[in-house]
Amino acid sequence: MPPTPFCCVFYFFGVAFLDGVATAAEQLAGRAVGARYRPAFDRTIKLTTFWGLIFAALVSLAFLAAGDWVIALTAPSDAVARLADTYLIYVVVLPVVGIIAFQMDGVYIGSTWSRQMRNLMVASLIIYFAAWAVLQPLYGNDGLWISLLLFQGARSIAFRFMLPKLAAATFR
Questions:
Q1: Residue 27 to residue 152: CA distance in whole angstroms
Q2: Distance, CA of 36 to CA of 30 (rounded, Å)
Q3: Which of 50, 85, 105, 152 could form a disulfide with 98 if both were Cys (CB 3.0 to 4.6 A apart)?
C-alpha cells in the first residue's frame, strides 16, 4: 500500500468532522434565507466559522498528537509507515486550510447559490490542476499534497470573497 492513499484515510476521517460544520451551516443558512432574515444569516456565518475553526484545530491537533502512533499501529509495513510519516504534516494542516471551504459549501448550498458554487469550484479546480502540473513533477507526492492544500485554500478564499456580494443580493 503506497503512503498517499494511506494518508488520505486520515484526511477523510477529519473531513467527517468538518462536514458536520457544513451540514449545520447548510441548515441554518437555508432557514435564514427562507425567512429572509439577514441577522440570522450573519449569526450563522459567525457561529459556524467559530465552531469550524475549533473543530479544525482539534482535528489537526489530534492528527499531530496521535498520527505517528496510528500510522505505526495500522500501516501494513514499516516502509509504508515511514513514508506515511513524511506526509503526515499535510494531513495535519489540511483541516485548518480547508474548514472555511467546507463551511462555505454548507452556506452556499443552504442559500441555493449552486451556480456560483459551481463556478468557484471550477476556478479552484483550475488552480489545483495548474499547481499539480507544476509541483508534482518537481516534488513528487509532496507536490500532490501541496496542490491539494492550494485547492482547499483557493476554495476557502474564493467562497469567502464572494460571500458579501451574494448575501447582499439575497437579502436586498
A1: 22
A2: 10
A3: 152
